[in-house]
């Protein structure tokens, strides 16, 4: 590696590194960080953290209502999910079709029952 040292007051103050060598160092550093991140994620998975299939993640992105996707993923019928939180299956259906917006408390209950974050159930206007 070809480095240039710049001194200030007789002390090494700066090191000049050729751009190509700097880029190579940064690429190696990024690769090491990626490896550390992957090891960390694998540790979480081995410890029991849930992983989601690509299909499950893609369904809301393709326009399906996230509540319906999570409900089906967890194996709930409309009626069973509604019973869990004390609302009608028609109310859950209206939320899934976008005909009604749930109250925050209802959304929180749904997320808790489905084992996801409230944000995971949000159906943004751009997805409708």
Number of strands: 2
Compressed to H and E, one letter per element, the order equals: EEHHHHHH
User: For the terminal residues, how far apart are their CA atoms?
Assistant: 55 Å
Strand content: 5-15%
Helix content: 55-70%
Radius of gyration: 25 Å
Largest sheet: 2 strands, antiparallel
Please state the structural category. mainly alpha
How many helix segments? 6
Shape: elongated
The largest beta-sheet arranges its strands as 1-2
Unreliable segments of 5+ consecutive residues: none
User: Average pLDDT value?
Assistant: 92
What does this structure look like?
With 128 residues, the protein is mainly α. It is 56% helix and 9% strand. The chain has helices at 19-46, 54-61, 66-73, 78-85, 89-97, 104-114, and strands spanning 4-8, 11-16. The chain has a two-stranded antiparallel sheet. Strand 1 (4-8) and strand 2 form a beta hairpin. Helix 4 crosses helix 5 (89-97). The mean pLDDT is 92.
Topology:
Elements: E1 4-8, E2 11-16, H1 19-46, H2 54-61, H3 66-73, H4 78-85, H5 89-97, H6 104-114
Antiparallel strand pairs: 1-2
Helix pairs in contact: 4-5
Write a concise synopsis of the structure shown.
It is built from 6 helices and 2 strands; from the N terminus they run E-E-H-H-H-H-H-H.
Index terms:
56% helix; 128 residues; two-stranded antiparallel ribbon; mainly alpha
């Amino acid at each position: 590696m070809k480095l240039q040292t710049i001194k200030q007051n007789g002390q090494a103050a700066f090191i000049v590194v050729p751009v190509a060598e700097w880029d190579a160092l940064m690429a190696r550093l990024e690769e090491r960080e990626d490896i550390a991140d992957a090891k960390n994620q694998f540790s979480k998975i081995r410890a029991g953290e849930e992983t989601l299939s690509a299909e499950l993640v893609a369904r809301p992105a393709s326009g399906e209502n996230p509540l319906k996707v999570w409900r089906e993923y967890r194996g709930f019928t409309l009626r069973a999910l509604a019973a869990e939180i004390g609302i009608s299956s028609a109310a859950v259906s209206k939320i899934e079709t976008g005909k009604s917006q749930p109250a925050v408390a209802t959304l929180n209950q749904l997320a808790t029952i489905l084992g996801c974050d409230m944000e995971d159930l949000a159906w943004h206007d751009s997805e409708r």
